[in-house]
Write a structure and sequence with these properties.
181 residues, 59% helix, single chain, 6% strand, two-stranded antiparallel sheet, elongated, mainly alpha
């Protein structure tokens, strides 16, 4: 699946141009990691063959910000838990946006019987790529390591299902709008 932009050509309104992104995850990664401090190559840098500062598939400045904003606006229309799953997977893990998403998902994905908030948050962060060791979590939170491991397996299963549903919903929306092949 690839994300495309709508051609601005007046002779063919609504016609889809070549894809900007190879897949849905590339588009989401771009949208959540886009930096407003990206600039196009100067004529001199083009002549000497150096690359510009931008890394967004040729989208820099207002064009890049607009594309990132349109993708993020689509994500914002998802229900809160699906939106949180997308943000937790693709946003910068050092941002408050990411931390808020982890907090929301840690409360949602908790299996019955696990009430320790720090365990839930650590395991949710682990699911989304943060390096977390069961032994350390168990020791810090004074919980049995086997309980932490079983809790992770249950939470991870729920989070995978939620992520899949969220990405399917986005894919459907992007397809409907002509952004995805």
């Amino acid at each position: 699946m690839t994300v495309s932009t709508i051609a601005a050509d007046a002779s063919s309104p609504g016609r889809v141009r070549d894809p900007l992104f190879r897949c849905l995850s590339d588009a989401l990664r771009f949208a959540y990691l886009y930096s407003a401090q990206q600039y196009a190559q100067t004529p001199m840098s083009r002549l000497i063959g150096t690359s510009g500062l931008g890394t967004g598939c040729g989208l820099v400045g207002l064009d890049g910000a607009a594309q990132a904003g349109m993708i993020r606006a689509t994500v914002d229309r998802l229900d809160p838990h699906k939106r949180a799953a997308i943000i937790a997977r693709f946003a910068d893990p050092h941002s408050t946006l990411w931390a808020d998403a982890i907090y929301r998902l840690a409360s949602w994905a908790v299996p019955a019987g696990v009430s320790h908030r720090r365990v839930r948050q650590a395991l949710t962060a682990k699911h989304f790529g943060v390096k977390v060791h069961f032994c350390e979590v168990a020791e810090q939170c004074e919980v049995n390591r086997k309980i932490v491991s079983k809790t992770y397996n249950a939470m991870s299963k729920r989070l995978r299902e939620l992520e899949t549903a969220a990405q399917n919903a986005l894919y459907d929306e992007f397809t409907e709008r002509g952004l995805v092949e």
